[in-house]
Amino acid sequence: MALTTDPAAPAGGAAPSANGAGRAAPRHLIDLLGLDRAFVLGLFASAERLRALRKTPGAPRPLAGRTAAMVFHKPSLRTRVSFTVGMHELGGDAVDLTAVEVSESGRESLKDVAHVLSGMCDLVVVRTFSHGLVRTLAAHATVPVINALTDFSHPCQILSDLYTLKRAGRDLDALTVAWVGDGNNVLHSWLEAATLLGFRLRIAVPDGFEPDPGLYLEAERRTDGRVQRFRDPAEAVRGADVVYTDTWTSMGREQESEWRRVVFAGYQVNAALMALAAPDAVFMHCLPAHRGEEVTDEVLDGPRSMVVEQAENRLHLQKALMLALVAGPDGP
């Protein structure tokens, strides 16, 4: 997929915030490239405030009377639950939609769907295959659109992961993150995040499974060499503060799973590989995990694993995100 760097494109959708503080607040959250660093750090602070008040008598309900349209074309556990529960906890409601109602080849054009949803809802959350579908909805919607995962990127996951690391006391401008595995949508969002913060990103992917070349080159350019590619996982992991992996076979490519297991056999995160990382390094995985393939039980269930925290923090970060996009920086 071609990289879009046009600042007017829906991926950024950034406009000056209403509070005049100079912080760029996006209209939509489609990708991380082009986001304002201060906006991202503000999300972390907001997530902490919402987390502290959760399930207390003073828990805020700033989105009371607001509704989110949840468009899900892919199976989902963490994404569906975190967005739906998050909307309810903020006082709002959610309506579920599928490919029957929203698709690129459905009963109605995406332009018409965007107009209809904008008139009835306050937010559109989309988890789908086609990145173009999300961009098209964002181009025509007058309410915020959130990319909850496409085949190209997974920005909410990486925002939540960065929040998780910050909560653990890690310096996001001094970390070294090692990615081991497929050059997939999650890696794309890590590449984009590296342009916002100062961490180093080392990626180890087999030949033929590299990330989008345009995005990789753009991230490399914007980070002044903080993004590096290795073929040997050991080189990428050595001394790293974070070791991250994902399934070798993404949703929709299940027919490739057998031969992918052969290609990726040397890219498993196991105890031997983790031993090469920094002594206080942590392991991260966005889940679901294929135990015994990209990661062993010993690592996934071990003391250095942050996967449970990652999953819960999807709720807190996405509550902050929905609040920021719907209510704005000066919202309730």
UniProtKB/TrEMBL annotation:
<comment type="similarity">
    <text>Belongs to the aspartate/ornithine carbamoyltransferase superfamily. OTCase family.</text>
</comment>
<dbReference type="GO" id="GO:0042450">
    <property type="term" value="P:L-arginine biosynthetic process via ornithine"/>
</dbReference>
<feature type="domain" description="Aspartate/ornithine carbamoyltransferase Asp/Orn-binding">
    <location>
        <begin position="175"/>
        <end position="324"/>
    </location>
</feature>
<protein>
    <recommendedName>
        <fullName>Ornithine carbamoyltransferase</fullName>
        <ecNumber>2.1.3.3</ecNumber>
    </recommendedName>
</protein>
<dbReference type="InterPro" id="IPR006132">
    <property type="entry name" value="Asp/Orn_carbamoyltranf_P-bd"/>
</dbReference>
<keyword id="KW-0963">Cytoplasm</keyword>
<dbReference type="InterPro" id="IPR024904">
    <property type="entry name" value="OTCase_ArgI"/>
</dbReference>
<feature type="binding site">
    <location>
        <position position="314"/>
    </location>
    <ligand>
        <name>carbamoyl phosphate</name>
    </ligand>
</feature>
<dbReference type="Pfam" id="PF02729">
    <property type="entry name" value="OTCace_N"/>
</dbReference>
<feature type="binding site">
    <location>
        <position position="246"/>
    </location>
    <ligand>
        <name>L-ornithine</name>
    </ligand>
</feature>
<dbReference type="GO" id="GO:0016597">
    <property type="term" value="F:amino acid binding"/>
</dbReference>
<dbReference type="InterPro" id="IPR006131">
    <property type="entry name" value="Asp_carbamoyltransf_Asp/Orn-bd"/>
</dbReference>
<feature type="compositionally biased region" description="Low complexity">
    <location>
        <begin position="7"/>
        <end position="22"/>
    </location>
</feature>
<keyword id="KW-0808">Transferase</keyword>
<comment type="pathway">
    <text>Amino-acid biosynthesis; L-arginine biosynthesis; L-arginine from L-ornithine and carbamoyl phosphate: step 1/3.</text>
</comment>
<dbReference type="InterPro" id="IPR006130">
    <property type="entry name" value="Asp/Orn_carbamoylTrfase"/>
</dbReference>
<dbReference type="GO" id="GO:0004585">
    <property type="term" value="F:ornithine carbamoyltransferase activity"/>
</dbReference>
<dbReference type="GO" id="GO:0019240">
    <property type="term" value="P:citrulline biosynthetic process"/>
</dbReference>
<dbReference type="GO" id="GO:0005737">
    <property type="term" value="C:cytoplasm"/>
</dbReference>
<feature type="binding site">
    <location>
        <begin position="286"/>
        <end position="287"/>
    </location>
    <ligand>
        <name>carbamoyl phosphate</name>
    </ligand>
</feature>
<feature type="domain" description="Aspartate/ornithine carbamoyltransferase carbamoyl-P binding">
    <location>
        <begin position="27"/>
        <end position="166"/>
    </location>
</feature>
<dbReference type="InterPro" id="IPR002292">
    <property type="entry name" value="Orn/put_carbamltrans"/>
</dbReference>
<feature type="region of interest" description="Disordered">
    <location>
        <begin position="1"/>
        <end position="22"/>
    </location>
</feature>
<dbReference type="Pfam" id="PF00185">
    <property type="entry name" value="OTCace"/>
</dbReference>
<feature type="binding site">
    <location>
        <position position="127"/>
    </location>
    <ligand>
        <name>carbamoyl phosphate</name>
    </ligand>
</feature>
<feature type="binding site">
    <location>
        <begin position="154"/>
        <end position="157"/>
    </location>
    <ligand>
        <name>carbamoyl phosphate</name>
    </ligand>
</feature>
<feature type="binding site">
    <location>
        <position position="185"/>
    </location>
    <ligand>
        <name>L-ornithine</name>
    </ligand>
</feature>
<dbReference type="InterPro" id="IPR036901">
    <property type="entry name" value="Asp/Orn_carbamoylTrfase_sf"/>
</dbReference>
<feature type="binding site">
    <location>
        <begin position="250"/>
        <end position="251"/>
    </location>
    <ligand>
        <name>L-ornithine</name>
    </ligand>
</feature>
